[in-house]
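Justification of resources, computational component.

The compute hours requested in this renewal are based largely on the per-chain cost of generating structure records like the one below. Each record pairs the submitted sequence with a full structure-token output. That output is archived, and it is also reused by downstream analysis tasks.
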Amino acid sequence: MTEKINHIKIYQRFLEIKANGGRVGDLLKEFSISRGTLYNAIRNVQNGDTAGLRRCLSGSRLECLWGYKYKARFLSLPKNRSAETVAELQKIIWEMKADDFPIYVIAEKLCKERSTILHHLAKRK
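The structure output for this chain reads:
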């Protein structure tokens, strides 16, 4: 589990550096990791932990999808309301809806009101 937390921290810093126009090399030095490890961590957070997801699908499908695909991305979002943050949140909401999450479950998992979720989904159309 600590590896997953490190992936989240790495992804958070990656988003900050990407938003500020910084260099990836600084991130590599900060975490003392190789470039391949960095991109593996980013891919793991963006696409979800596919190996863990396959193992978990014998149980509750939505809980597995949340835990292995969306949770890390949501927890990595900055707490501000910048355009990049809102766009990433909308992307998460749209993908969750495409994976057949009901509106009330999306709202519960993302700690948002149902009207907010519906507002973001309406923007997609």
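The chain is about 80% helix and 0% strand. The chain has a mean pLDDT of 84.
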